[in-house]
Write a structure and sequence with these properties.
The complex is a heterodimer of chains A (848) and B (225). By secondary structure, chain A is an alpha+beta fold. Chain A has 30 helices and 20 strands. Chain A has 4 domains: 199 residues, no CATH class; 181 residues, no CATH class; 214 residues, no CATH class; 157 residues, no CATH class. Chain B is an alpha/beta fold and 225 residues long. Chains A and B meet through helix 1 and helix 13 of A and helix 2 and helix 3 of B. Bound molecules: adenosine-5'-triphosphate (ATP) and magnesium ion. Magnesium ion (MG) binds next to helix 1 of chain B.
């Protein structure tokens, strides 16, 4: 259909604003989806690659659930299990001022055992002779990537801090990565001799794990060695990757939440497209009618519109891919930072452009465009060859449809509500429910708008006179075109409200929780792999000194361990709780009244809400805790509120921990001061007693509290960016739709001008009309925003992270919503109003 | 030349429009037969149902009751797609309000029926445009033309693909006497060449006189005179 194509090309060229907006809609949607995808993917990849590079050709690893592996197990593996190819590994984290902001991964290896495992190391060492490496335990090998970044050469000093102490390492050699995988895998790795690494990380006599290389099908069983007392009961032999897979699974909910948010941006993009295409169809109604009268079939018209949409989709997707790649560069930092803060240490070097992701985003964009264009395309196919389908008829029909669509929408929303009641923890189901509610309420907005406008009409007339009445009538009379624009605005504003309320509620719940949970006056810990997570073991001497300070009247000790057992990750905490700190726990209803005393006595454990929720456990159920020698089944005596770990925390009395482990270490310490003591001053005094080469973090209650809130704010930065982007998409959409609407009225307004309306009157009329639309949208978005907040706070958040928030609605968020909507709409009206007021009536009247 | 145009038969046709809950009957039990190649003028006051009649004959609209037959084809028995096909292959329609496609030039407007039918335009468009006196406006868009010029393009478009049935709704309504005469001459000549059947709605007595027969729309009935 050459001529038909030509006709549509001319139409779109003649309506550049509409064309640009549709393309922008797809492009922004695609860009947001793609960039989030890429950022998360880059973080996952970074984690996987470094795990793989470090693992080399190992097939299995031997680890121990309750902690580190004793050195002597290596002998057991080689002698008693008969595994010849095995290598001991000590792993941990360090930081260096030369590469500030990055976490370095310390990998301690035994060069003699390395050959079959990590060839890059073996060859690097062989090239330069092993002498240095073995003779100087603080010699390190670094990759050329790190060396270049930190300005290191062979022989340079590399100052680092690890486990709270400062060290000067010497660069013994530089490894040239053989491929890109190695390049990123080794980028942040410090390779050292195992003895040096043990010193550095404060893990003398123990290993992190033992790597094994087993032939296919030969997997030794540990049972006999355990029975003979050579290994402990909590030893576990797993295929390589199991652990890192389990760890990377931790970000599942985080991933889904961000993806859902990014999809929302795409949905807003669809509104934009739907709007523009619908608009183009409405405008060309008579044209399509004429084509039909001349003999163009209904199918040909539908296909024509879909072809137009496909072109818009493809162009938009291409632009979106470009934008998305750019955007991902900004987002990846935020995403990986959050992952570092909340889940595990990961270093992301850059964003790979994965063709598969591009293809996925592009097809999502084109698909969304076609779906959005389908209703208007079918509508166009129905264009009446009788040519009697006048605007009035369309609007009359549209108004007949408004209540039906509203009823359907409310039905869809109710269905969404029903979906949410399905007792499942599946996020897909939850988001389906949420999206159904959003879509349903969006469909109900045109009906709601009519109601709002009817209510506002008397006030508007009183305020603006004739122009006010005209504006109100205009909204009702052009609902077929304004409807989708208002719906888009309402959805965008209410999503903003919903997210705002959710973040606010989160902040409120967290603050209250911190207030309760941080009972001690001073907290002491070592710097961990990431600033927000304590790790390592405090030196007993420091613990002694600190607790002996005259101002200290009591203390709690805390031993934390991240446990990966089977497919499960959780935090295990052993607590020696000072009676002054008992108020720290806010137990949920159903907890036993004597939970704390049973916990103290070691008869029972208490678990955090996310732990219980994720595993479907309740008070009375028992959890299995593996100890050094045997596992025990301990009942849960209470479930407490906690926002510290999404994976969940099991807390046991120190008594029980000591019964299960020989470890007597302490991860952090809470100090209670005498009444009236100045905690700042005490902190200064305590720090003064710490030896020069050691670093201990000593913080007052207030500092720790604000540091925790800072992590929270950082965590929500990505959400805030997405919220903003989604809003921009919707805002642009509304702007475009309303502007196009007003421009389309050009002829009508020209007529009004010709019959004597002044430019000022026209100006006021147009702005009043779009402002009214904005007001309607703002008012409607309040109930919708509240409904969305409720779902996000009580359903999505709970199912994603396992914790319950207290919903808190700040009135200013609602007020902002209304103001935002009105401003968006008025802005949308200004441009066209000016153009129209300036246009000479003769020009406006001319033409079709 | 022997006629190749179709015969037309309307049998007991009812047509009414619903508007705001009220129905408004336009045709009630209207019947009419037109022989192949016959040229018929339709007269009647404004609002009597002349355009409605042409819409029914072209299959653009369907009767509420009764039959509309063109040759052996019962239009009511065709599906939407076949009716469209019928129109594109066999009908040339000069609409009362021209209905040119605003996004296509004059030449392209004329090419459209040919392209839909799958025919090669050759020189036909240029010839027709010359005959209606618009050879120099071939590349203008319709909204640049005056009302009468648009009407002449509409006539040319209705004839360009040599349809067997030509329906013209006041083809000279906007034209001065001289130009109107030229258009009617053209219409007559092309109809004669093709042996087409012609139904023309007009208020002009002189145009009606040049037809074989006149039909009057009178209170919902079709009365031959
Ligand atoms: N889509 C419609 N909806 C409602 N009424 C209609 C519609 N189309 C036509 N009518 C009515 O049907 C009647 C006949 O209309 P039609 O267009 O056939 O008249 P006409 O004889 O061609 O008049 P004119 O000479 O003014 O063109 C008129 O009263 C008109 O108002
Ligand atoms: Mg008429």
């Amino acid at each position: 259909m050459r001529l038909l194509t030509r006709s549509s090309v001319r139409y779109w060229l003649g309506h550049r604003l509409q064309t640009a907006l549709s393309i922008l809609g797809v492009a922004l949607g695609v860009a947001v989806v793609l960039s989030i995808d890429m950022a998360i993917d880059a973080s996952r990849e970074g984690f996987r690659i470094s795990a793989e590079t470090v693992a080399g050709r190992a097939t299995h690893t031997l680890t121990r659930a309750s902690g580190d592996v004793p050195d002597r197990w290596l002998g057991v593996v080689r002698r008693d299990l008969g595994v010849r190819l095995s290598a001991p590994i000590v792993e941990g984290y360090a930081r260096s001022d030369l590469v500030s902001g990055r976490t370095l991964r310390v990998l301690g290896v035994d060069p003699l055992s390395e050959g079959p495992f990590r060839s890059y190391l073996a060859s690097a060492v062989n090239d330069r002779g092993m002498g240095r490496f073995v003779s100087d335990p603080f010699a390190v090998y670094v990759s050329s990537v790190l060396a270049d970044g930190a300005g290191l050469t062979v022989g340079s000093d590399l100052p680092v801090t690890a486990a709270g102490r400062s060290w000067i390492l010497t660069v013994a050699g530089i490894i040239d990565p053989i491929d890109d995988l190695q390049r990123s895998g080794l980028a942040d790795v410090l390779l050292m001799d195992i003895a040096g690494a043990q010193d550095l990380l404060g893990s003398v006599g123990v290993l992190t794990r033992i790597d094994l290389r087993l032939d296919d099908g030969v997997e030794p069983t540990l049972d006999r060695a355990i029975a003979a007392g050579l290994l402990t009961a909590d030893a576990s032999l797993d295929p390589i990757g199991t652990r890192s897979e389990t760890l990377s699974g931790m970000i599942g909910a985080f991933d889904v939440n961000l993806t859902a948010l990014s999809l929302l941006a795409l949905v807003f993009g669809m509104f934009l497209i739907y709007n523009a295409v619908t608009f183009s169809v409405v405008q060309r109604r008579s044209l399509f009618g004429r084509l039909r009268a001349v003999g163009v079939t209904r199918g040909e018209v539908v296909r024509l519109i879909l072809r137009e949409a496909a072109v818009v989709g493809v162009v938009g997707a291409l632009v979106g891919i470009g934008l998305g790649v750019l955007l991902s560069r900004g987002l990846v930092g935020m995403v990986s930072r959050t992952i570092n803060d909340l889940y595990f240490a990961v270093s992301v070097r850059g964003v790979e452009v994965d063709p598969l992701l591009l293809l996925k985003a592009a097809s999502l964009g084109v698909g969304a465009t076609l779906v959005a264009a389908l209703p208007p395309a079918l509508e166009a196919g129905g264009a009446n060859p009788r040519l009697a389908a006048l605007r009035s008829e369309i609007e009359v029909r549209a108004r007949q449809w408004v209540p039906r669509i509203a009823a359907g929408g409310l039905g869809a929303a109710a269905l969404g509500g029903l979906v949410l009641t399905v007792p499942t923890r599946s996020l897909i189901v939850s988001f389906t429910g949420l999206f159904l509610i959003i879509t349903g309420l969006a469909l109900a907005t045109p009906g709601g708008t009519l109601v709002v406008v009817r209510l506002a009409r008397p006030a508007l007339t009183a305020l603006l006179g004739v122009e006010g009445t005209m504006a109100a009538r205009g909204v009702g009379a052009s609902l077929s075109r304004t409807g989708p624009a208002i719906a888009a605005l309402v959805v965008a504003v209410s999503v903003t409200v919903g997210l705002g309320v959710m973040i606010d509620s989160f902040r409120g719940s967290l603050t209250r929780w911190l207030d309760g949970t941080l009972q001690a006056d001073i907290y002491v810990s070592l710097p961990g792999a990431t600033p927000s997570r304590a790790a390592g073991t405090l030196w007993p001497s420091i613990v002694e000194d600190f607790t002996a300070h005259p101002a200290v009247v009591g203390h709690s000790t805390y031993r934390g361990q991240r446990r990966v057992e089977g497919g499960d990750v959780y935090d295990l905490v052993a607590l020696d709780l000072d009676p002054r700190g008992e108020a720290a726990f806010a137990f949920l209803p159903g907890s036993e009244p004597d939970a704390l005393s049973r916990f103290r006595a070691g008869d029972a454990v208490i678990v955090s809400e996310p732990y219980a929720y994720r595993r479907g456990l309740d008070v009375g159920a028992s959890v299995r805790i593996s100890g050094e020698h045997a596992g025990v089944d301990v009942p849960i005596a209470g479930v407490f509120r906690d926002y510290g770990s999404e994976q969940g925390t099991v807390m046991m009395g120190r008594v029980l921990y000591d019964r299960l482990h020989s470890d007597r270490g302490i991860t952090s310490l809470g100090l209670f001061l005498v009444q009236g003591a100045d905690s700042e001053a005490v902190v200064t005094e305590l720090l003064r007693s710490v030896p020069e080469d050691r670093s201990v973090i000593v913080r007052t209650n207030d500092t720790l509290r604000s540091a925790s809130l800072e992590v929270f704010e950082r965590t929500f930065r990505v959400t805030a960016v997405l919220r903003l982007l989604a809003f921009i998409v919707a805002f642009v959409g509304v702007l475009g739709a309303l502007a196009a609407l007003q421009l389309e009225r050009g002829r009508e307004l020209g007529l009004l001008r010709a019959t004597g309306m002044t430019p000022g009157q026209l100006w006021r009329g147009v702005v009043a009309q779009t402002g009214l639309l904005g007001l309607a949208a703002g008012v409607l978005s309040i109930p919708m925003g509240l409904a969305l907040s409720w779902v996000m706070v009580y359903v999505v958040n709970k199912r994603s992270f396992g914790w319950t928030l207290d919903m808190r609605v700040a009135p200013d968020i609602l007020l902002q919503a209304v103001v935002l909507a009105v401003v968006a709409a008025v802005l949308a009206g200004l441009g066209p109003a000016r153009t129209m007021a300036k246009t000479r009536p003769a020009v406006a009247l001319r033409g079709e | 030349m022997t006629p190749t145009g179709p015969s037309i038969a309307l049998i007991d046709v009812d047509k009414s429009y619903a508007e705001g809950g009220r129905t408004h009957a336009v045709l009630t039990g209207a019947s009419l037969t037109i022989a192949p190649g016959e040229r018929v003028a339709v007269l009647g006051p404004s609002g009597s149902g002349k355009s409605t009649l042409l819409n029914l004959v072209s299959g653009i609209d369907l009767p509420d009751a009764g039959t509309v037959r063109v040759d052996d084809i019962d239009l009511g028995g065709l599906d939407e797609r076949s009716r469209t096909q019928f129109r594109r292959d066999r009908v040339g329609f000069v609409f009362q309000f021209f209905n040119l496609i605003p996004t296509l030039t004059v030449r392209e407007n004329l090419a459209l029926p040919l392209e839909l039918k799958g025919e090669d335009p050759g020189d036909r468009i240029g010839e027709l445009l010359a005959q209606v006196g618009l050879a120099d406006r071939a590349d203008s868009f319709p909204d640049r033309l005056s009302g009468g010029e648009q009407q002449r393009v509409a006539v040319a478009r209705a004839l360009v693909h040599r349809p067997g049935l030509i329906l013209a709704d006041e083809p000279t309504g906007n034209l001065d006497v001289d130009t109107g005469g030229v258009v009617v001459d053209l219409l007559e000549r092309l109809v004669a060449d093709a042996g087409a059947t012609l139904v023309v709605v007009t208020h002009s007595a002189s145009l009606a006189e040049r037809m074989d027969r006149t039909v009057r729309v009178d209170r919902g009935q079709l009365v031959s005179t």
